[in-house]
Amino acid sequence: MQTLSILVGSTNPVKINAAKTAIAQYFPETMIQCSGMHAPSLVPEQPMTEAQTRLGAINRALYCQQQAQADFYVAIEGGVDSFDYGAATFAYMVILHQDKQAIGRSAQLPLPNKVYEALVAGEELGHVMDRLFNTNNIKQKGGAIGLLTQGLASRESNYTQALVLAMAPLINQDFFNDTL
Predict the structure, then answer these.
(1) Which residues are part of a known binding site for substrate?
(2) What values do phi and psi take at 68, rounded to 5?
(3) Scanning 20, 75, 122, 167, which has its CA 20 to 30 A from the CA of 95?
(4) In which residues is substrate bound (predicted)?
(5) Which domain holds residue 43?
(6) What letters, b where the CB count within 10 A reaches 16 and e where it falls short, cover 113-136?
(7) At residue 121, what are phi and psi to the nearest 5 degrees?
(8) How many domains are there within the chain?
(9) Residues annotated as binding site?
(10) Cα–Cα distance between 141 and 180 in angstroms, integer?
(11) What is the rounded distance in angstroms from the CA atom of residue 57 to the CA atom of residue 53?
């Protein structure tokens, strides 16, 4: 049986499980070895713009690629931004495979104004949600998504879907080639 290795730029089990689940769907007859490592984002702990969030994911994936050998390097960076219609949280996904890079973005979750104001004041989303909902370390569980959707969605399910979509250019390289 063929084995694929995935290195995730985080030790958060939610991110590691999402990466393994997403990539395994494309390779059902393959044994998947997935592990995580601390990878610096080089952006603020709580990214406050789409650009910071995307850059954090890119930095984490590149760091992993420099540290160890794997078939896929995956990084997921959660962030927030304020849009015309209100504040929201989302994540950027970066997948590196050989000399290719794929970038995706998760669905976004609207945030209450008081949550966004706490983030602007310097807090991290997981800590704010733990305080508001009297939870502990929610970012390694269902996340703000789980809390605000009453469990109908989770951080992991959102990340898994986004990673499945982000894989499309890597799985279908001929269609994404400019020389079609």
Answers:
(1) 10-15
(2) -155, 165
(3) 122
(4) 10-15
(5) 3-176
(6) eebbebbeeebebbbbbbebeeee
(7) -75, -5
(8) 1
(9) 10-15, 69
(10) 43
(11) 6
